[in-house]
Amino acid sequence: MKILNNILILLIILLSACHKEYNPTNDLFEIVGDVARVSSMVSPTSSAEANSTLNLTIKAQALNTDIKELKFYQRIGTSGVYNFVRSVPFVPNFSATERVHVVTVPYTVPNEKGKSFSLQVEAVTANNLVSLRRTLSPTNISIR
Question: CATH no. for residue 65?
């Protein structure tokens, strides 16, 4: 009887080691890598002189990857399409208190006096994955 119990216990251990759990979400999506996230892009003012320089504050983060560049898209006026205008290398500046990178990027105001402009930014990671775009706050900057 003792031998039969030992064989039964051994059989249960062997069968449980072969069990593989099924994860129903595996078939729904595929994770291809880590994408960065831009949490904010803020201008110090809502009005600026044409051809002046604004120091934009951008907060971004990426987990298990590095951000290599920031791409900027600009729109003249209050509606319409944002067009690519420039790309700048990302220089890490991690803030331990905010737990994100806080970077300052100089941006030249377009020479479009009497109009306004808006910007969007996206972060590109080392594995070339692109974040969602973040729109400037305030959304429209008046050009004097």
Answer: 2.60.40.10
**Stated pTM of the model:** 0.75
The string of pLDDT tens digits covering residues 21-40 is: 666 666 666 655 678 999 99
**Angstrom distance (rounded) from CA 122 to CA 88:** 11
Q: Is residue 48 part of a domain?
A: yes
Ramachandran category for residue 101: left, alpha or beta (phi over 0 → left; psi -120 to 50 → alpha): beta
What is the Cα–Cα distance from 66 to 128, expressed in whole angstroms?
Answer: 10
Please tell me the total count of domains within the chain. 1
The whole domain housing 131 covers 37-143
pLDDT in tens, 1-18: 678 777 777 767 766 666
- For the record, the structure tokens of 103 come out as 């970077």
